[in-house]
Amino acid sequence: MSSLVRALLRASQSTTPIPTSERVDGEAFFVTNGEPMPFWDVARAVGAAAGHPVKKEDVWVIPKGLGYVIGAVAEWVVWATTFGAKNSSFNRSTIRLACMTRTFRIDKARDRLHYRVMVGMQEGIQRGVDWYLGDQKKAQ
After folding, report:
1. Beta strands in 39-130 (DSSP E)
2. Is the dihedral of CA 80, 83, 89, 91 positive or negative?
3. What is the pLDDT of residues 37-63, one digit of tens each?
4. For 22-46, what is the mean pLDDT?
5. Which residues, other chains included, contact 108 with Cβ-Cβ below 8 Å and sequence gap of 6+?
6. Could you give the 3-state DSSP secondary structure of residue 48?
7. What average pLDDT score do residues 130-136 get?
8. Which of 70, 78, 115, 139 is the most exposed place for a label (fewest CB within 10 A)?
């Protein structure tokens, strides 16, 4: 969060008049750490940071096409057994989303806000997990 907070502060704290061409109010920026990491690697990193690592050899990977077939069957079974009243939560759309890799460019934040990454992905995950686990202990 410290990288995000820093970017927000840089966007809001200007003591000198800013030329219209350089203003950032009303604009959208992607603020990330600039380190692409696939979704499932993030999920495994969070588990490891929480003390539950998963070895690569323990992960089963099914082909995307097979996932689509299973999703389509699940959709049909739920539709048939509920007479169309419900939708399957496991479907072709969830397979598509689970297989996507999305990366966001932070060039605009770097150029316009002079943003720089302060916390790397692994450290950020560890900080987030530590905060969450500490917060859970306080709640008990």
Report:
1. none
2. positive
3. 888 899 999 999 999 999 989 999 999
4. 87
5. 29, 30
6. helix
7. 92
8. 139
- As given in the structure block, the two tokens for residue 14 are 């200007």
Up-side HSE of residue 38: CA atoms within 13 Å toward CB? Answer: 8
What phi and psi, each to the nearest 5 degrees, are found at residue 73? -65, -45
Which of 34, 13, 14, 48 lies closest to 126 in space, CA to CA? 48
pTM for this entry? 0.69
Q: Who contacts 132 (Cβ-Cβ below 8 Å, separation ≥6)?
A: none
Q: Classify residue 25 by its DSSP letter.
A: T
CA 105 centroid distance within chain: 14
CA torsion through residues 6, 12, 13, 17, sign = positive
pLDDT of 39 reads 85
Burial of 91-123, coded b for 16+ CB within 10 Å and e otherwise, reads bbeebeeeeeeeeeebeebbeebebebebebee
> In sequence order, which residues have a C-beta less than 8 Å from that of residue 24 and are 6 or more positions away?
11, 112, 113
At residue 55, φ and ψ (nearest 5 deg) are: -75, 145
Q: pLDDT by residue (tens digit) across 107-125?
A: 998 988 888 888 899 999 9
Cα–Cα distance for residue pair 140/137, rounded to 1 Å: 5
Distance (Å, rounded) from C-alpha 75 to C-alpha 132? 35
